[in-house]
Write a structure and sequence with these properties.
Strand content: over 45%
Distance between the termini: 131 Å
Shape: elongated
Radius of gyration: 34 Å
Keywords: Membrane, Transmembrane, Transmembrane helix
Structural class: alpha+beta
Protein name: DUF748 domain-containing protein
């Protein structure tokens, strides 16, 4: 009996549908019962083969959905075979970094098995890795410096012709870096809650030559909401908020960076035997033109420009008598300590805008603190480096600042720090213009038990050169109609009483009322200050300036 065309079409459609369903069922069964163990073995074999048996990978389960084109790898553990360490080192094949990782789940989407089978190309839409725990043990091997890095495709080509992913995301990373290179006791750095996103990852025969890519990817973005790291001595803490770093733009931005002492002013002095207590807050930070090779291969920060648009720097000096440090004759200046930092820097230019800088000095005799405040500070730092190679070419870090002293007088400063010099060589100069001398009464009352009743400063300039042993230089202070009031020490019931007779004698016979006097040329005071070995940098600088001021008015 002949079927009409309509029935033949219906029967063909039903047969085709049943065939498709049967194929999907068979494919699913094969995927669950046949492909899974095969895939597991292939992955483990690939890891062993590509790492010369140094690493092996284990996982609890692989869930593969052939119809949806996605897979989940659960309970992943990536570990190194410690028995091979010594063998690789003797053969001079030991890598600088040894990795360990564990991940609860890796989710892959956009898997096309037919493309893998027929073209040997593995392309994925995305790889999502949630809450990985990663540890890197770093030990720099001298022989690796002379090796030619084998392109990763040479290893991958044993399995597929190319591997590409549109997007890779690693969410909430717990990262530990252990540096065993330089110290007998390893130094450990930890980062938590880090997010990384990779875009357009491609590994094939040509991608390693693509200059628009960095480690085979078009862009890698690091995001960090919050990070806190204690310094090695646990006296200070670094705080970071809202960090964003992109390899494509070669830039890093920070919303907030803070260097926070862990003790109050007097307690900090007790802990450090009188070190300067320095607190720093920087906001709206942008680092441009970062050298990615230096950053990832040499663990150094090289960049062209750093901009900071808002910040505060507070320096507190405790002038109490402390026991000298046992391990050193002279307390190191900041640029001497900077040279010894493990993390190496080279930043061509730092631009500072809208800073407030406060120098505070505690006088134990009066139990008061004198505060010198520089408002609305703007300036530049050039050749900010502690790395040996650039220091050999130019050892000098230059700092230029302009500001408002006590939000009243215009001030200009310049510093030169010879970072390479073992004796802490530096020089500084500056000038202050047009100020009522009573502006600094809060400082003079706290530190020298005196204040200005009358007097106007039209010009003050200083030029000093120093090192860890002391300061030499000169000051020129032009002023008119100076008159002071001296107070009795110690205060009675917390009240400072005037010493009228002593003030009269000082104003009449000791203090020079003006500079210049009459038709005489302006007096220039000479600074020759011998540093107290255990006193810090800013204390030494301030005492040198005070010697020049005293030489101008007495």
């Amino acid at each position: 009996m002949t079927q009409n065309p309509k029935n033949r079409f219906k029967k063909g459609l039903i047969i085709s549908l049943y065939t498709l369903l049967a194929f999907l069922a068979i494919a699913t069964i094969v995927g669950l019962w046949g492909l899974k163990p095969l895939l597991s073995k292939r992955i483990q074999y690939a890891v062993l083969k590509s790492t010369d048996s140094l690493y092996h990978i284990d996982f609890k389960d692989i869930q593969y959905n052939i119809t949806g084109g996605d897979a989940r790898i659960l309970g992943v553990r990536w570990q190194a075979d410690t028995t091979l360490y010594k063998q690789l080192d003797l053969a001079k094949k030991m890598p600088d970094n040894i990795y360990q990782a564990q991940v609860e789940e890796i989710h892959l989407t956009g898997i096309n098995p037919w493309k893998i089978i027929f073209s040997s190309k593995l392309h994925l839409q995305s790889i999502s890795i949630k809450e990985p725990v990663i540890q890197i043990n770093h030990h720099r091997q001298y022989y690796n410096s002379f090796k030619t890095i084998t392109p990763f495709y040479t290893i991958l080509s044993k399995f597929v012709k190319s591997f590409s992913v549109e997007k890779v995301s690693l969410d909430n990373i717990n990262f530990t870096f252990i540096n065993r290179s330089e110290k007998k006791t390893p130094s450990t750095s930890k980062v938590e809650h880090l997010n990384i996103e990779l875009t357009d990852l491609l590994i094939d025969s040509m991608s390693h030559r693509d200059k628009s890519r960095f480690y085979y990817m078009k862009e890698c973005v690091f995001k960090l909401d919050k990070l806190e790291i204690l310094t090695e001595d646990s006296l200070n803490k670094f705080k970071i908020k809202e960090l964003l770093f992109s390899t494509k733009s070669k830039s890093l931005s920070l919303e907030h960076l803070e260097y926070e002492p862990q003790y109050k002013e007097i307690a900090y002095g007790n802990k450090t035997d009188g070190d300067d207590r320095i607190s720093i807050i920087c906001k709206n930070i942008k680092l441009d033109s970062i050298d990615l090779y230096k950053l990832f291969e040499e663990k150094k920060i090289y960049a062209k420009n750093l901009g900071i648009n808002n910040g505060q720097i507070n320096v507190f000096t405790d002038t109490r008598l402390f026991k000298p440090h046992k391990k050193m004759d002279y307390r190191p200046f900041p640029h001497e300590a900077f040279r010894k930092w493990q993390l190496k820097f080279l930043i061509d230019t730092i631009k500072l805008s809208r800073f407030k800088i406060t120098y505070s000095e505690y006088n134990p005799q009066t139990n008061l603190v004198g505060n010198v405040i520089f408002d609305k500070a703007n300036g530049y730092v050039h050749n900010f480096t502690n790395d040996s190679v650039p220091l050999a070419k130019n050892p000098n870090c230059m700092v230029f600042l302009k500001s408002k002293l006590m939000n009243k007088a215009n001030v200009h400063f310049s510093f030169r720090f010879n970072v390479s010099d073992k004796q802490g060589d530096f020089s500084c100069s500056g000038k202050v213009l047009n100020m009522q001398l009573a502006t600094v009464n809060q400082v003079t009352e706290a530190l020298v038990m005196a204040k200005t009743q009358e007097g106007y400063l039209s010009y003050f300039a200083f030029d000093m050169h120093g090192n860890k042993f002391g300061l030499k230089g000169s000051t020129t202070m032009l002023y008119q109609d100076l008159k002071v009031m001296i107070y009795k020490f110690p205060p009675e019931d917390g009240v400072f009483k005037k010493r009228k007779l002593l003030s009269f004698i000082a104003n009449t016979f000791v203090i020079k009322k003006s500079n210049p006097t009459g038709k005489k040329p302006p007096r220039v005071a000479i600074i020759n200050y011998l540093r107290i070995p255990d006193k810090p940098f800013f204390y030494t600088l301030w005492k040198g300036l005070l010697e020049g001021i005293k030489g101008s008015v007495l």
